[in-house]
Amino acid sequence: MTKRPQRSGSSADAINVQELRKFGHGWILDGQYRQLSPLTAEARRNVLDHFFWWLGREQAVTCGALEIKGFLNYATIGHREPGGRFGAAKLTKPLRPRTVKDIYGILRSFFRYLVAEGYIQESPVEAVRPPIHRPDQIQPFSEEQINAFRRRQTKRRHPNGGWAG
Fold this sequence. Notes:
- The chain is mainly α.
- It has a single domain, classed as Orthogonal Bundle (DNA polymerase, domain 1).
- It contains five helices and two strands; from the N terminus they run E-H-H-E-H-H-H.
- The protein has helices spanning 17-33, 38-57, 65-77, 97-116, 143-155; strands at 15-16, 62-63.
- It has a two-stranded antiparallel sheet with strand order 1-2.
- Helix 3 (65-77) runs antiparallel to helix 4 (97-116).
- It starts with 14 loop residues before the first strand and ends in a 10-residue tail after the last helix.
């Protein structure tokens, strides 16, 4: 069994936020020239925009595991703020657990890119446990619901055998 190095959770070994912004721009460009899907590129941009907005709001000079945890926490509860999440008054609904896990995954990908490019030695995201995501349990239709659906569909049939619009 290999032991992981102990981490204090402090941001002493964190990366400078100004440099992080520059590297974020490079990561976006990397995804564009590699022709990632437009949805992936948009998700990356959105998460980084929100992440840098939050770092600015917190007046963070550096970013490490502690700041990443803080951002994920904010993404989870930020909708409770009077101005809405990320300062957008319309963002007042809580994020789904899957969305928070997706944000975590995008940040993990970004910081792994920084390691691969040699900008940092180790990703601070690796010190952050991933959010729990419990997929929504989809309940099957009851026999009564199925029969009601069938009755409704039968009523919609047109007299000549076709469907009524």
